[in-house]
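Researcher: Go.
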Amino acid sequence: MKRKPYIDILRIISTYSIVLLHTISLKWSEVTLDSSDFAIMMVYETLVRYAVPMFFMLSGALMLENKEHFSYRKLFSHNILHIVIVYLLWSILISCWDKLIAGGSLLTVDFKSAIVNGYWHLWFLLPLIGLYILIPIFQKIVMNERVCWYYVVLGFTFAVFIPFLIQIGQRYYPFSRFNTAMQDINTVVAKIDMRVVCNYGFYYVIGYLLSQAEFSKTERHALYITGILTIIIAIILNIQASRLAGNVQEPFSGHYNLLVFTSTIAFFVAVKTIVGNMGERMNENNVMYISTHCIGVYVLHIPIRNLLNSHGISSISFNPLLAAPLVALLIFLIAGMIAVLIRKVPIIGKRIL
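Model: Structure:
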C-alpha cells in the first residue's frame, strides 16, 4: 500500500495541536475571563479542537484501505497488541513519574488504578482499540459505496445534526416552541437508540471516504469557506458562553459538534489538496520519520508539560499569543527526541512506543 504524505502531515499537525490544547488547558484557572489573554487562549484552543476527530479519520483512511490483504492475526497480534502495550505500560510509568516528581514513594503508586483507568490523556487509545476490533465490519461497509454513505449520513444526522439543533434550542431559545419540539425529538431519538452510528466509527468511515474522494475546485472552496466560518462562530460563542457563565465553557468544541465537524472536514481536504499539489517538492522520508514518532509525542507530552510548568515555563510565561504555540513546540520537540531515543532501543523500543 503506497504511503500518502498528506496523512503523515495531518498526523504531525494534529499531534502538535493536541500538545497546544493541553499546554493551554493547564492554565485556564490563572487567567481572567475579561482579559485579552483569555480570548487569545480560547482562540487557540477552539482552533485545535479538530485534532481528536482527525486522528480517528486518519486511522480510518489507513486501516480501511487495505481490504484485499486483511489479516485477523496481524490485526490482533500487531496492531491491537501494540496499542494495548503502549496504553498499559505508559499509564503505569507516567503514574510512577508523577509520584516521584511529587516527592512520593513508588510504593504508594496505585498500580491497579493505573492499569484499570489508565493515565487520563491516554483515553484516546481505548476507543481506538475498539475501532480496530471492528475493522472487519467497517471494511464490509466501505466495500459498498451506497452502504458507506448511508452509514455516514445516519451518523451525521444522529451524532452531529440533531444534537446541534437540540443544543441551540436549550442554550438560546429555552422557552420557545423550537426548543420544546427539539426536546420531544430528543426523547424519541433516545428511544430509537442509534448509538451504533453515534460513535467514533462515524469519523473512521468518513476518513476513508475523504481519502478516496476527489473534489472540484468549487466544492473545495465551499468547504474551506464553511470551515473558516464555523471556526469563527465557535470561537465567538465559546468566549461568550464563558463570560456569561463566569468560568471556562466550551459548548461548541465537542468532538461531534457541527462546528467542529465542518472545520475538521475542511482541514482534511485542504491539507490533502495542498500536499497533493506539492508533488516531488516534499521530502516524504523526513515527513514519514516525524510522523512515525507522533505516537511517542502524544504519550510523553503531558509529563514533559508538567515538568516545564514546574519550572515556570507555560502558555502564560509571557504573552500567550506567542507563549502558547512556542511552549507547545518546545514540548513537541522534547517529546519527539525522547521518542526517537526510546524507539532505538533494541528489540523492545518499537514495541513500547
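Model: The mean pLDDT is 94.
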